[in-house]
């Protein structure tokens, strides 16, 4: 009699077998960034039975995410990505341990969270976090599976595998602020992160199984327009790695492009979302938007900390609200955004609503 | 000797092309980089790696490959 198991199609592979499946079931993988890359990676890793699967993201699901982040649906709008992912993945595979971390990776918490896992999948959209992951993975000897995107193109690589090169060996110098546009600024073909994220999951499984050729010391460049897929070799730069090990902690990089993408535009807001507004302007600035019941900039932190609704600060032009939200973020308030537009546009938007 | 250049990511926008062939000779990767920055001022202060014959190489390395790839870091996730 043939026992039908969830992992049958993997176990049937000579290269995997029961022993390989057992390795997958014992593996601990952390996916940082539950977006275009993180969603597909998580789906396949959960389905494969990765025993402990962590997911970290401070952001909320927004309407423009649904074009490519297949784990989410319209019911998730306005909810934290890591928590939403956890809910969906539990339905996909209840046999694995799923850990959701609804906050950002920081220099303060990186050591603690990365130490719990064997492999880290980089699904971030910013260089600040990417260099942090890379440095922490060097210090704690963890494999980092890298993926990144630009429009119709993707890059994939595996870092710190058996003393192999790291992200800093490939790109020692972080780009300056604004030098490299990200998806939210320039757009991306929805399928591109799908392909790259699944590739990352595949490399993670190969690391777990010690199978085939890994992209260690190799950068895979995928181009969906031209089909020109290229693998480029690169070498380890011991000086880059030594500077991290000597420092004993990750070295922060100056680039903070969308470190936390905390600006939100009116067109990104769905009609269903409940929003707590904060008016950071002075009392005499017009138009007043009292019917939105906005809180003032003197609102207590506890109120914001406990808010289950999305908090959006606004001013006349989106400048002061950004400063306000940056301050709140530093105080640990997660669910807080700055409106890109000003009070006047908000007034028109609210009228139509 | 001709060299074939392939531009990746946003370097395509900076140069306005995805590929080109150059007939000029270059001693090193770095001298090719300087030539390209002269030709495409938008490449100035850009962070990109150069690979020859499918291997990312240092600016000080002699340029002896025929296929040259120019790669910026990518952000989006």
Keyword list:
heterodimer, A: 353 residues, alpha/beta, Rossmann fold, Oxidized Rhodanese, domain 1, 2 domains, 5-stranded parallel beta sheet, 13 helices, 18% strand, B: 77 residues, alpha+beta, Ubiquitin-like (UB roll), 5-stranded mixed beta sheet, 5 strands, 21% helix
Q: What are the secondary-structure elements of chain B, in order, as H or E? A: EHEHEEE
List the total number of helices of chain A: 13
CATH architecture of chain B: Roll
How much is the radius of gyration of chain B in Å? 12 Å
Integer-rounded radius of gyration of chain A: 22 Å
How many beta-strand segments of chain A?
Answer: 13
Largest sheet of chain A: 8 strands, mixed
Q: Calculate the mean pLDDT score of chain A and round it.
A: 91
How many structural domains in the coordinates of chain B? 1
Instruction: Return residue spans of chain A where pLDDT drops below 50 for at least 5 consecutive residues.
Output: none
Q: In words, what does this structure look like?
A:
In chain A, strand 12, helix 12 (320-330) and strand 13 (336-339) form a beta-alpha-beta unit. In chain A, the strands form two sheets. An eight-stranded mixed sheet of chain A has the order 3-2-1-4-5-6-7-8, with helices on both faces. In chain A, strands 9-13-12-10-11 form a five-stranded parallel sheet, with helices on one face. Chain A has two domains: 8-247, 3-Layer(aba) Sandwich (Rossmann fold), CATH 3.40.50.720; 263-352, Rhodanese-like domain (Oxidized Rhodanese, domain 1), CATH 3.40.250.10. Chain A has helices at 8-11, 17-26, 38-48, 81-92, 110-114, 127-139, 167-170, 183-186, 191-209, 238-247, 301-306, 320-330, 343-352, and strands spanning 28-32, 52-56, 97-101, 119-122, 143-150, 153-159, 218-223, 230-233, 263-264, 275-279, 295-296, 310-314, 336-339. Chain A has 353 residues and is of the alpha/beta class. Chain B is α+β, with helices and mostly antiparallel strands. Chain B is built from two helices and five strands, in the order βαβαβββ. The longest helix of chain B has 11 residues, at 29-39. The N and C termini of chain B lie far apart (39 Å). Classes of the chains: A alpha/beta (353), B alpha+beta (77). At the A-B interface, strand 5, strand 6, helix 8, strand 7 and strand 8 of A face loops of B.
